[in-house]
Design a protein that fits this description.
about 240 residues; alpha/beta; eight-stranded parallel β-sheet; 9 helices
């Protein structure tokens, strides 16, 4: 798999029908890009559709959204046959080693690769299936025991080893910052992830994609201002989860 051309990274204009949630989210993304002096085409919008009904997903699809993110393999197996074939599927939650083979058959992009064991399993299964995947390395920025991911200190060696594969391309870094009282509380964590990305890009060169998957419904505008290339938006797009 390869990254799509920049012009196709964000469905800014609904193609079929209007969806008020998608329209509002895209307007907020545009405003954040303007504040940061960035082109909106640099930012990929992923609809985080965990526990969302197909009807809501289809509404967003009909309005132009083509990228959906799920947290569980089993839920995606149930939903994928009910969605059009041109959807790009992103795995947003942690992946267990015993579900890697099923994940390779379902997803185009894996956002929460939290250990090298999963990197190697994805490389083995994707290579055997003739697939090419994009993977983000998850970073536990706050050292929280409740969260998965590489520590900043072990990130370089992990990224170097992960980048050596051929079936899995390291797209960049992903993180969920510690919970704060306001979106602004996420800013220093997003900035830290960007700094880690910049350091890896300098050291690893072309073997590292340099993308940043960060920002959700509560803080995606701050994430864009701090350099996010992929934002994972759920509630703001689809409403409260069932």
């Amino acid at each position: 798999m390869r990254l799509r051309p920049a012009a196709d990274l964000l469905p800014l204009i609904p193609r079929v029908a209007s969806d008020s949630h998608l329209t509002e989210v895209v307007a907020r993304m545009r405003a954040a890009c303007d504040r940061a002096g960035r082109a909106c085409e640099e930012v990929v919008l992923i609809g985080a559709s965990k526990h969302q009904p197909i009807s809501r997903m289809r509404s967003a699809y009909d309005a132009g959204l083509r990228r959906f993110g799920e947290n569980r393999v089993q839920e995606t197996e149930e939903k994928q046959p009910q969605m059009p074939p041109d959807v790009e599927w992103h795995l947003l939650g942690p992946l267990q080693s015993n579900k890697v083979r099923r994940a390779v058959a379902l997803f185009d992009v894996v956002h929460a690769v939290d250990r090298l064991k999963i990197v190697h399993a994805l490389e083995r299964e994707a290579g055997g299936a003739g697939r090419r995947l994009l993977a983000f390395l998850e970073v536990n920025l706050g050292g929280e025991p409740s969260k998965h991911g590489f520590s900043p200190g072990e990130l370089y060696e992990a990224a170097e080893e992960a980048a050596a594969g051929s079936a899995v391309r390291v797209a960049g870094l992903m993180a969920i910052p510690p919970v704060g009282a306001s979106p602004e509380d996420s800013r220093p964590w997003f900035r830290r992830l960007r700094e880690l990305r910049d350091g890896l890009a300098d050291r690893l060169g072309s073997g590292f994609g340099g993308k940043l998957s960060m920002g959700m419904s509560g803080d995606f505008e701050v994430a864009i201002e701090e350099g996010a290339t992929h934002v994972r938006v759920g509630t703001a797009l689809f409403g409260a989860r069932s």
